[in-house]
Amino acid sequence: MSEGKHDVKTHLKAEEPKPKKKRSPLKILLVLMIVLAAATGGGTAYMYKTTKDSLDLKFTEETPSVEFGGDYSSGDYVRESTGDVAPAAASLDTDSLGEKTLSYTVSRPILGGLFTPSKEFALSYTVIDTVDPISLWYWDGAILERGTKFDIQEIIAYGDNADPEPQVKVDGTVNMDENGEYPLHVTVTDASGNSTEWDMTVEVADTVPEYEDDTPRTKFEDFAKEYKGDGRSFGIDVSAWQDGVDYEAVKKAGCEFVIIRIGWSDEGKVTLDNWFDNNFKKAKAAGLKVGVYLYSYDDSEENVRASAAWIADKLGGEKLDFPVAFDWEDFGKFQTYKMSFADLNKLYDVFADELSKSGYDCMLYGSKLRLEKVWDDTDTRPVWLAHYTDKTDYEGPYMMWQASSTGNIDGISGDVDMDILYH
Fold this sequence. Notes:
423 residues; alpha/beta; 4-stranded mixed β-sheet; 22 strands; disordered N terminus
């Protein structure tokens, strides 16, 4: 065998076969459609159109009215259909008042799922508000100093679930230059025409009497003994009002935990509580369980998010034994914030959302009245209840109860709030 032939033969054996061209799924589908169309004489297109024309959806109501802030499942409005129904959203949008629409897609596959004709339908609905505004604070009467200016906004507080600026009307007059009692009838009306009203009396006098606090004080040891039971712990909450706390003495008195004010926020800026760092460090050193709370005056989602980010930065990943408490309670002049209750609830949601990014859970602090009348979703939000009474009649769930603001415990001079934690 010659050397030249050997080279040629070797070269031919080493040559790799050319790869076969792969057909794309789109081309395969196109070929199948052409073959199918040819076999059926255009029947596929006819079947597609016929199926699409037959798709139908009937709603339980043609134009339902739903309540502002309510939870309405979009699926509940489907009475019957001739295909699979897919609403554009799981629930109706009730965050604002007025007329709205929600689209639904009805579809049904044909030819073993090769094609899925579909058709769009729309549910028109109206979001309404039938809830009355509420009075957040007023006395049966008020005593004002003669010669000063009368302003109804200084002696009442009110708010509404949907309207950030309900209107107040006062029937009756007050002569601030003459001592006496002046009856008034107050009416607060929201943008939907819902109203609440009450009577009150304003007294004009030479001087306003000073408030006398005659509430009896309770020793922490007696408090814990009275409410002791399985699955309960007893603690306190403190701020700069309780300066120079001796935490070793506090623990020796039977205290098991402390919730510490980290500061207060206004317009997204947090002012650090003067005693926070000292309280936090020494409470942990004493072996107490520790949590923190923010007293907030924030009035926008942007501001409350900034405040939450500040807290996360201040804590710096420090472990807490309780969720961070959101304490918004400036209800004595709520109308001046120009927020609805819905707006206020969103502030808590934003606060909790922002802190969750740094691994911190949240709980909502509120009085019995506010939890019942103002705050929403209290059955799903962790709640710190404030109700100063021997036995609370608050019916919602709560993880902690601030039962007294006039407690007395070794290690603190003056009053302190006392709390019960339920495990």
